[in-house]
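**Sequence with structure:**
===
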Amino acid sequence: MSVLVLAPVFHAHQPPGTPDKHVEQAYQQRYKPLLLALSRLTNVKAAVHIDGWLQSWLARHHPTFIERLGELRAARRVELLGGGWADPFLGGLPERDALGQLQWQTRLMSRRFKMKPKGAWLAELAWDPALPGLLTRSGYTYALVDAGAFEATGIQDPWGVFHTERQGARLTLIPVDRRLRELLPPERSLDATRAYLEGRMADGVECVVWACELDRCLPLDDERRSLRALAAWLKALDAWGHEVKTLRVGDLLSRVQRQQRAYLGSWFPRERMACAADPTAPGFEVGVVAPWERFLLRYEEANRLHKRMLLVSEQLVRLRNRIRETPPAKRRALKEALDAATLHLYSAQASDVLWHGPHAGVYDARLRHRAWRDLLEADSRVAHTLGEGTDIRQLRLDYDADGRQEIVVRTARLGAVLDPNEGGALVELDLWDLPGNLVNTLRRRRERYHDDLDRFANLPALVFESDEELASVDTEADALSFDVDGDGHRIWSDELVEDEESDELSFYDEDDAGAARVAAIRVGPTATSEAIGPEELVRHVVVDKLQRVCFTDHFLGASASLDNIARGRFEDAGDFADAEYQVLAAENQDLLDAYGVTMAREGHVTQDGEERLVQVSKRFVFHRDLPAVDVRYEITNRYHTTIRSRFAVGLSFGLDGLTGPGRYLDFGRSRALTSERGEVDGISTVVWVDERRKFKVRIDLGQQARIYHFPLRTVASSGGKLRLLDQGFGLLLAWPLQLWGEERARFDVSICTD
């Protein structure tokens, strides 16, 4: 009787900077039981991939795990796979960083396990045509790729071993069975798995590669059932020895007779591409074949992170050049700074934050904050090492790769990005001391999975009379979540949150000499999550017309109520908010020791059905030694008759998506949590306070204004469940406006951090 060769591969990954509490939970409920099962079932052979950051964490917190894993490798029962250190999309990195990620992982495993990996695990098992050159130059001979990448090129039922090349760089590819990945425990029974394997044998298939992504197929909220299923599955493999023989995946290279050539195009799993297209756009198609970069088109927040990463990578090149120009005896401090900056850069390059699918990804504000924090740490360290930390610097470049130039400003205390093409908005505001991006928000979008909630929208008994009533439901909650079973009934669940009692986390790595190195990073607390049902959640599905950034300019129409403003659907009588502004001046102001940027737009304001010509000019001033931005608006009526309206400036702020009693807005005579909505009149100063992080953002207005404030929340898929995730909060500053022909009005807004 024929025997089917099965190559199990277990993948473990945690985004760099994940709090110890969460990693420890995953260790106890996923990684440790897997290692025990592999140790006891001596006839089962497998491959294991653990990303570099997680390996270092395990080496620090559970060294016996690493030791036992090394023993299994030495006994040739387990093969250890390599790949990028932080599990990045290698094809989306500059070549120097992609090679660096691969080489860091190889050096780490060489020191720890006395071996160099030959097989590479690729993030999401996706493919990029640039990979053969990158992997072969880093010492890899083969890589695992989802079978869907082969099917996309017309190869039917891919199995076995394939060979490819790119400009002479040759690499072996091993397809991972897509159907078997769908039969992962605990969703399917062992009988279904065995029936599938028997069917493959009947089709003449010699080998099957099964990839189990531990942190996805074994959910923490039902670990007992998951672990029982995984243990039963491994025991079944042991018992099926006369029909199914397990091998390490690398052994297939010499054991499998079916070997072919293949040339694959850029590919990302189809089922995970559903969120990369706008479901409201004409011609929307679910599951199209496309590269992962399509997510950068849909989510400008991911695109800005990616492009900031490219800019920081260029900064590290400058530091490397400085090291080469420095005498060897004086390089030590420069190399230490480079190592630290590289660690932060590579941590920020993890793939998790650049896409969205069954898991939150770019929707996770904490994940985005960690990436921003690492990028700013790297940028700041390089600037100070090069002696540029106290300078005012500005760049005019196509920052977001849209074919138009943005303005990047850097001072001793903050960094900023102005986009003249998107309403002249401030799209990034970085604090070096925090560090963090205060505009780390997210535009609320319609997602395909929101359709599942639509049936609750028309149930009068289940919805609130008003959005104001709804806003009072969850002002104390930080991350609200619910699950729904097949019948629409609520399933209570907990959202993983950062430890309330701990305000530090550490990640561990080793330098080239093998010495321990620990970096401590500040993290914030959060409240325990609550659960709400779909009948409430459906009311939080909001679509923003505009990006959630700062200094978007509006002329409010009659429908501009708090409810419509909070939902982003108010009538804007002007055409300024996302239109192109002309840069009139961008220059240093030597007397003020500052840098100024002036932008203006001549647009229209609709009044009484007629368009009136109006000019909006705004001047941004960034000070060398102050963490402040001063903005002066000048509104000019270019029409011959009077204009009566309300001029408003939109500000959207976010850091890590955490809310709670210690995070509030102070209006002087009243306070409101950032998770609350409301409006206050006659305000000249509002202070955003974060007591846990001990920082304040003060917003001073030259003229008293009515301020509308509201939380920014998204209904997003996270961990395969729909959750209500906080993304920050919005402010709309509004002033009454009446201008005669050719008359001007001035409004001043200043943002300063303490």
